[in-house]
Amino acid sequence: MQPFIPASQQVQLPLFEAFFANPVLPGFKAREQPRKSNQPELFSELALRGAPGHCQSLLAPVLRELSEEDDSRWLTLIAPPASLTQAWLRDAGLNRERILLLQPGSNQNALQLACEALRLGHSHTVVSWLGSVSNSARQQLLRAAASGKAQSLNIRLG
Question: Which fold has domain 43-157?
């Protein structure tokens, strides 16, 4: 029998850490990832599948958190879907004064625009909708993010 611990004293693990701490599948073990001196990952991806409205509901808190970063730089959104309008940003509770929405022009594609935004360093995070990212594109984004001391987040909708 486990001792009773009041809710105010319980430690809550983040969702995935809790799963890996107590694996559900027999024989499943989480791999230990080497950590780099509290340095954040420069490139991340988030894959969302399902109805567009549900995907937007899942995406809203992520973007809201990023729009409220203590960093004084921008949260830049590169080539977001047409459904992410100014009204949606407002309704989702994002700090619109800290967000740049950029669409690629005729002389550059979304990957080039994302790399340029990362390299310039005016954004703490550049969120892009590039679809599946090849290893070459990933390396470009990593180099640009390192150069601008920024983070790259690619959203894959499917």
Answer: Rossmann fold (3.40.50)
